């Protein structure tokens, strides 16, 4: 096996300082060893799991996006399962009552390398709560499935922070969960006993398939590593009233709308000469969410070379193409998004109104990309201080 995760190391050798302790565990179905044993089963053989915490999509990972999850009781441990994704923003943070009596709080969830993906922000909020409760916070680290060698995207402007970007970082952040925890503990000067169980064998140039680890869907619409590869850009389509492919078998690779002609959309996107990918005209009929049951003109994004593919630039190009092809029928999402109803979803995803404004103005793609180039370079340099690997 090329890589051993934090959980694999715990399964092999244990954590002496957690033996017999009462712990809380933040997890979902992705928290497994290379032998497919879940973290609950690994840790309850060494400690007492006194509380479980489920992030967005729930402990079992069966809830769709932005669907509140209720608390429950775990049949294996008999312990309470506390939801960290309820009806309000306040539910995203573990309560003092839920942490009462715990000796440590442990985090083990597979991230996908994009700042919109909420699990790492659940981790940061939980780490803050652990600091307030004066209990150790433990991260069992896992690979960034996109590798950690490249970053892409701009900063978040003040006032545009949200649960799809709790603090400013690039859209493709190039960090592991452990590295993000290290960054935030230092940047926020958290008085927390942070313990990161680092991986063995992971290198920043690795994509997930290079690790030798099994892929388990971390959320219902992240079925494959291919999905994670396109997600840093194609998640932007969530900020429109076009379909991002939820309700199809290839979410985020397929996208379109009833107002689109797939051939026109593919032709427009192909004209941008984006690296490492091809756009193929097709049609979709989503089974749920946007345009459920309605035939949409669409394209499928095929990544032909991951090493040159630029997911964020490609996602912005998709916005521009949808706007150009759709004309007045194209619309930005104005409904509430991740607990925010005063800022358009696309501005939260992009970190400011800049991309939306330039897409509406039909600005050339290279001019739009120039708006984040300097921020991308600055972030790439700043993140060096937080790296644990290579």
Show the helix and strand layout.
Blueprint: H1 6-13, E1 22-27, H2 39-43, E2 48-54, E3 72-73, E4 80-83, H3 96-99, E5 104-108, H4 119-133, E6 137-140, H5 177-187, E7 194-197, H6 225-234, E8 254-257, H7 262-270, E9 277-284, E10 296-303, H8 311-326, H9 345-350, H10 354-360, H11 365-382
Parallel strand pairs: 1-2, 1-5, 2-4, 5-6, 6-7
Antiparallel strand pairs: 3-4, 8-10, 9-10
Helix pairs in contact: 4-5, 6-8, 7-8, 10-11
Strand order of the largest sheet: 3-4-2-1-5-6-7
Largest sheet: 7 strands, mixed
Distance between the termini: 19 Å
**SSE sequence, one letter per element:** HEHEEEHEHEHEHEHEEHHHH
Radius of gyration: 21 Å
Helix content: 25-40%
Counting DSSP H or I runs of 4 or more residues, the number of helices is 11
Gross morphology is globular
Low-confidence stretches: none
Structural class: alpha/beta
How does this model look, in words?
The chain is of the alpha/beta class and 390 residues long. The chain contains 11 helices and 10 strands. The strands form 2 sheets. A 7-stranded mixed β-sheet has the order 3-4-2-1-5-6-7. The protein has a 3-stranded antiparallel β-sheet with strand order 8-10-9. Helix 4 crosses helix 5. The two termini are 19 Å apart.
